[in-house]
Amino acid sequence: MRVTIQDIAKAASVTPSTVSRVIAGSPLISAKTSQKVRKVMREMDYHPNIIARSLVRRSTNIIGVLLPGASERVFQHPFFFELLRGITMQAQLCGYSILLSGAGSEEEERNRLHDFANGGVTEGAILMISRTDSTDWESVYPAQFPLAMVGRPADAWKDRINWVDSDNLEAGYRLAGHFLAKGRRHIAFVGLAPNIVVTKDRYEGYRKALGEAGLPFDERLVVDGQFMGGDERVLTEELLRCGVPFDGLIAADDFQALAAMDVLAKQGVRVPQDVSVAGFNNVPLSEYYRPPLTTVDVNACALGEEAVRLLYRQLQEKDRSGPSHTIVPTRLVVRASA
What we know:
six-stranded mixed β-sheet; LacI/GalR-like_sensor; 3 domains; transcription; Rossmann fold; transcription regulation; transcription cis-regulatory region binding; HTH_LacI; 16% strand
């Protein structure tokens, strides 16, 4: 015989409405009561009927999360694991589950977003797509569908959607300033993807620091590269082929910086004696590489948590002031490479 909410309530000595609130993750229920009810649910092997609850409440408590680029590359990068950890933890605190979907092209992005907005499964969505060009999202989702973005959106959307980001321009400026303070004057930048806001902002911060220091800009020391685009070694190999001497190298991502140190070592270039090297994102490997990598910690977990908070406020209709954005502070982590 199927166990019901009434059976759980009787066994836990609470009301059926209390059991329903525990299942829904209501903040009105104390932790002690919630633990007691869930213990009884486990003992009685009770599993809530999610579909039935959704039909009754006209809500699913599911948030869609749209991952960028090729999914296999995304899941190889610690930044996205930390980002998803923050999203998952905060969603759970808010009583929501998440549904992941990947998109390898702009057309796929539009299709996935259309599914999120019109499929009846997700109540809102978090996007991780931050380009300088404006995707035509408006044509595929209703204006009232709650959205939040991780990363500053294109200018056409930055005042029309909830978003959270690091101050990547300031982070690039501070990192380049650190190189300048170390006496570096010929600083390269590798990994610029002009259509990706995050790499463009880091590059602009680097340019700003060089300009304020009165140093001439040499475009030959800038190497474009697809963000998470495959073999990062080719960026530094291309830089070396141009033949312009450099004494510093800033990469848009830690893996590009670690690849740079590998390429330089094979060419007999010492880090940091000959060339200082640094990156962004503070991936776990950066601390254990030799030499340990100087980097910028962007606090990916906090970015994910804040994205859910912004979306949750819209879902609960507690924030009627319109779209808002949050900037999460970054931290310069100085190690032996620079």
